[in-house]
Specification:
alpha+beta; 7-stranded mixed sheet; 23% helix; globular; binds 3-(2-carboxyethyl)benzoic acid
């Protein structure tokens, strides 16, 4: 009992699930904590652990001097399990799951994406967590053209086919990111819930599931953000956001202008959220966490100082070397917000 009280004293004053960055050297200590739902490492390899479904590593090399792990911590004891190669951990309300698929040869990505999503849709239903809240999609060579189709577009086809085959096309779409890694393996991980969240679109952008077919032969299935009321508090999960207005890429070749346009998109999502449900969140500077995906390492310093100016130097963020799903996009940001509990 006293250990529990001490433990609560340590944790931050936030409800339900807390997502934060911690020093990489503390990773093992966090994994020994039974209320940790997930621990994400950024490195040169994409891997999952056969022994611990909470651990994943993404082949996105961190940029800059700091080395962080992303820790997802709940307030309740976590139960772990797996269904075949889909690993999961849950505190009863929130399901964290991950799946690492191998591609065997050219042309295997569509099948891997379809198989991965079919598995996710089936297992989440079997476990009673029918509602996908947030999805991350990571795979290498995202802009490579194979058989006249860019791999991102091939991925979109496989994902779409899985949703179509399961009769889920009309369902609310989760918030998502689809990012190119620098290591082999298609890694899918997600948050799911037994009750739905509220999808949010960005009025400055055409919804991705209505993009013209030039961007992919099958629509990308995601919403711009998902507002989720957990029993213990409200979260906003913002999808990968880039310099896209309408459906077009803006500021081709100009990293800082792309960052400014991305900031306008994030502010638009925050405003739209506020219209639907007034939160303490009034500007993107108040977001709890951001991941900044950077295509060219040499852009890092310029991005860092402009990010501090546009948002806040106090906004916790990681910079990761990544490819973005359109070859003309030089950066993308995804973000998380946790509404502070009323005191
Ligand atoms: C865009 O605005 C950028 O296919 O799951 C962002 C987030 C993007 C998710 C996905 C794609 C995806 O269209 C691309």
């Amino acid at each position: 009992m006293s250990a529990q009280i001490q433990d609560l004293g340590f944790s931050r004053a936030v409800p339900g699930l807390d997502i934060f960055y911690a020093a990489e050297s503390s990773a093992d200590r966090w994994l020994s904590d039974d209320s940790v739902l997930a621990l994400i490492r950024f490195s040169t390899r994409t891997e999952v652990s056969a022994e611990d479904p909470r651990f994943i590593s993404i082949g996105l090399p961190p940029l800059g001097p700091q080395r962080y792990v992303e820790v997802w911590r709940t307030r309740l004891p976590v139960i772990r399990g797996h269904d075949g190669d889909l690993h999961y951990a849950t505190d009863g309300e929130i399901l964290f799951g991950s799946l690492l698929l191998e591609e065997h040869g050219n042309g295997a990505l569509e099948g891997a994406a379809r198989a991965g999503y079919s598995k996710i849709l089936k297992v989440t239903q079997d476990l009673g967590f029918d509602h996908l809240v947030r999805l991350w999609n990571y795979f290498p060579g995202i802009n490579l053209e194979i058989d006249a189709l860019e791999r991102y577009r091939t991925f979109c086809v496989g994902r779409y086919e899985a949703f179509a085959a399961s009769g889920h096309l009309r369902q609310r779409h989760a918030a998502a990111s689809a990012i190119g890694t620098h290591a082999p393996g298609l890694l899918l991980y997600f948050l799911a819930a037994s009750k739905p969240g509220m999808p949010i679109e960005n009025p400055r952008q055409v919804s991705a599931f209505r993009y013209p077919k030039v961007y992919a032969p099958r629509h990308p299935l995601f919403s711009r953000a998902m507002l989720k009321q957990w029993d213990a508090g409200t979260h906003l999960y913002i999808s990968g956001t880039a310099s896209v207005v309408g459906h077009r890429t803006c500021h081709v070749g100009d990293t800082l202008e792309q960052l400014r346009e991305t900031a306008r998109n994030l502010e638009a999502i925050v405003s739209r959220t506020h219209e639907l449900q007034p939160l303490a969140l009034k500007s993107a500077a108040q977001l709890s966490l951001a991941k900044v995906y950077v295509r060219r390492a040499e852009d890092l310093f310029r991005i860092q100082s402009e990010f501090d100016r546009l948002f806040s130097p106090a906004l916790p963020r990681t910079y990761l070397l990544a490819d973005i799903c359109r070859s003309d996009l030089l950066l993308e940001i995804d973000a998380f917000y946790c509404e502070p509990t009323a005191s």
